[in-house]
């Protein structure tokens, strides 16, 4: 359609009209400039039937705005920096496990190992719980994390129907999330909250910030080194235990698989492009030398080539291949005689845009220099792995820090190459909600002598 010079086109999913946006300026208008017409995502939400469904990702209108304003200060760069040491502690087991793979010449199922790492990170930083998934791949968090993403045909069918016709779930009072998953996360969060409040436990993590919000303590929206600074709030809307459980769940749901997938694809590209891998390793070593070999928050923020590599990975492999918005107020497309009616779903095809040769020449090539300081300014609304506008991913800073810590930890000590068991070129799994490879990515790992 874009080749025909169109800025948008439409299709029907059953009886539901959908509009696909093709023009970056129109995408900018709908995601940002005219956001008041497209405030909702149109996802399933029912707080009574499925309490985990009522969180930032799904909330609508005023409910979303109030919750976003309440929670946004917990994800400033300062608050993310506060969690750095907690995150860094999770790399200890990762290094132990990677040593075993290298010394025993075992082939690395990169998604499996990094999924266990991101589970430990989210468990520790999000719930304040040591999951030990790297040590024990059958940990409860891994078990229920997999269940949360769906394990069979019925789960895939429910996910598809929830996107096409979420009202059916309300009519039949069906929870989208697995009842076992709901029970596990609700109980885990409530037990954590009770223990911390009864024993006055303070920990530098997401759960502590949620407890402050529950107690109607306003978290300062600043970047002052992530200190646990707060003051009494005049806002009477505190968070309930159920709401905290829902936000902790989406912190896990949105952060576990997306970060593991991004890391898997990044290691695959680095293993496939030896020179790029070596350039990144040299940057890591040179920066760490300035910090006496210590991996710190300030050190990873200096790794600019790493940032380019991550951005290019997210360009080729955006975890969420499309962003959706529901029209909440009748909207006339600028400079056109087309009106988007209330209820129409609007799609931004992220994967398609990221592979558009108009914006990214030779799009199948992995080229971090696409995101040099000179080129980054050209990427506005054509690089959208976290979305854009007021509903941009709130956990973007945390996710990037997690990925950077993992890359810096492993690349300074290990070399990676692609094992022949890996299918090349990568083929995407068609039944997955998130972008995922069909089959596994297998890598060889070698420790520096």
Automatic annotation (TrEMBL):
Membrane topology designation: Peripheral membrane protein
Residues that bind heme: 393
Keyword tags: Endoplasmic reticulum, Heme, Iron, Membrane, Metal-binding, Microsome, Monooxygenase, Oxidoreductase
GO molecular function: heme binding; iron ion binding; monooxygenase activity; oxidoreductase activity, acting on paired donors, with incorporation or reduction of molecular oxygen
Compartment list: Endoplasmic reticulum membrane; Microsome membrane
A GO-annotated cellular component: endoplasmic reticulum membrane
Gene3D superfamilies membership: Cytochrome P450
Pfam families from the UniProt entry: p450
Cofactors required: heme
Family: Belongs to the cytochrome P450 family.
Protein name: Cytochrome P450
The organism of origin for this protein: Ignelater luminosus
